[in-house]
Design a protein that fits this description.
single chain, alpha+beta, four-stranded antiparallel sheet, elongated
Length: about 130
């Protein structure tokens, strides 16, 4: 009887360790995917902001998440000021032009209408 209880106890421990390991591995894979997504999209967001708005020296990215509708977005702030927060939504394969920001940043606009990243890149290649 004692051996049976020890065997059941060890089996439960082994199962819990396996489940814990699996969950840790899943979390690690999600973090890696977020980091890769951020490394691909952050240069596009920064290019968009610096091209379309004055006074932007640097952009700090703080979080990658997904809306309830399944659309990814990246959060951050500009010029080291957390009050100048941004939220860049990604629709389709890559970020193009959808950024939420404080109203004061809209006053920094260089143009009446923002250009998308694809338009900026097209303009850059035509100048070469």
């Amino acid at each position: 009887m004692k051996k049976k209880i020890i065997l059941i106890f060890l089996t439960i421990i082994i199962i819990l360790v396996c489940i814990g390991g699996y969950l840790i591995m899943q979390n690690h894979e999600k973090q890696e995917a977020k980091q890769q997504f951020l490394s691909e999209e952050s240069p596009r967001i920064e290019k968009y902001l610096k091209y379309n708005y004055k006074n932007i020296d640097n952009v700090t990215f703080t979080n990658v998440s997904v809306t309830g509708m399944g659309n990814p977005y990246i959060e951050g702030y500009v010029n080291g000021d957390k009050d100048l927060y941004i939220t860049a939504s990604i629709y389709g394969k890559h970020f193009e032009e959808n950024v939420g920001m404080p109203i004061e940043m809209y006053e920094w606009a260089k143009y009446p209408t923002d250009k998308s990243v694809s338009e900026i890149e097209k303009e850059e290649t035509s100048h070469k």
